Amino acid sequence: MDYYKNKEDKALQDITDTVSKLDTEIEKIEDLTDGNDRHPLEKWHAERLALHDIKRILHDTNKYDHYKEDEKDQIDAYFMDLSNPYYQPYFDGIVAHSEY
């Protein structure tokens, strides 16, 4: 029984570390992008990565069955697509690099 208790304690500590890391990352994003409207996307990316880490931790303790290892790659790819200026609209509503 001690083994499972130690494993759960380690999982809780890992989750706490992940959330603390997320808080630090969000503070850094807010400090670096003060006045810039792109920071919600960067916050979304940091939150999704933290959630992915928490899912992995829970999966390792057999508490969560829907963990997918390749989800992190999908999150990174989606973030890179959204942060590409080709897909970003201008502030006046005109789409950048429009084909029309």
Could you characterize what this model shows?
With 100 residues, the chain is mainly α. It is 66% helix and 0% strand. It is built from three helices and no strands. It has helices at 2-32, 39-60, 71-83. It is flat and about 50 Å long. The protein starts with a helix and ends in a 17-residue tail after the last helix. Residues 90-100 have low confidence and may be disordered.
TL;DR of this structure?
This protein is mainly alpha-helical.
Topology (SSEs and partners):
Layout: H1 2-32, H2 39-60, H3 71-83
Helix pairs in contact: 1-2, 2-3
Describe the biggest sheet?
none
Shape designation: flat
Structural class: mainly alpha
Number of strands: 0
Order of helices and strands: HHH
Cα gyration radius (Å): 18 Å
The average pLDDT is 77
Beta-strand percentage?
under 5%
Number of H- or I-type helical stretches: 3
Quickly list its features.
100 residues, mainly alpha
